[in-house]
Amino acid sequence: MPAPTPGTLAPQGCFIASTFRLQFFLTLSDFMSQQFCVIAPDVKLGRDVVIYNFVNLYGCEIGDGTKIGSFVEIQKGARVGRNCKVSSHSFICEGVTIEDGVFIGHGVIFINDKYPRATVAGGALQTDADWEVVPTTVKRGASIGSGATILCGLTIGEGALVGAGAVVINDVPAGVAVAGNPARVLTSNEK
């Protein structure tokens, strides 16, 4: 069976990596039964995307050469650029755009709702109509350390560095390093 054309929807399969970094092409049902992954048919995968075990992808776009670690979820409407690395246990929600060459450490969490609630005033569960997705952008070449939490409506600038465990509540300027809770500018990261 031939691999899907890169840059198109891949309802019959995707590229995966074994622990030996070999790439295989499998049907989606084979992939899910052997790797315990869920990759919806509306996911758009670029060339040479590597996806490890226990991943949940739906309605998102992943650029060429990107690696997605184990236990990652990427929701509908999220975009991950080319040559990125998304480490294990990270959550990239709807409304997040990650540009090319970005590093996402282990356990990074993005937030897309400023005022999250389970129910509306009358007690009924919220629906999509009851809240607004607030977008976040991570610019080219930025790095986000393990365990960081990125609140919504922010831009992390080109080449910026977010320290491990940081809670980012404001925009991060290009080329600087931030850390802490709340994240504060530590130093310029220019080379």
Between the first and last Cα atoms, what is the distance in angstroms? 46 Å
State the secondary-structure class: mainly beta
- Secondary structure: number of strands: 23
Strand order in the largest sheet: 5-8-11-14-17-20-22-23
Q: What's the helix count?
A: 1
Helix content: under 10%
- Shape type: globular
The sequence of SSEs as H and E is EEHEEEEEEEEEEEEEEEEEEEEE
Proportion of beta-strand residues: 25-35%
Radius of gyration: 17 Å
Descriptive report:
With 191 residues, the chain is mainly beta. The protein has one helix and 23 strands. The strands form five sheets. The protein has an eight-stranded mixed beta sheet with strand order 5-8-11-14-17-20-22-23, with no helix packed on it. The protein has a six-stranded parallel beta sheet with strand order 4-7-10-13-16-19, with no helix packed on it. A four-stranded parallel beta sheet has the order 3-6-9-12. A hairpin with a 5-residue loop joins strand 1 and strand 2. The longest helix is centred in the N-terminal third of the chain and has 8 residues. The protein is globular, with a radius of gyration of 17 Å.
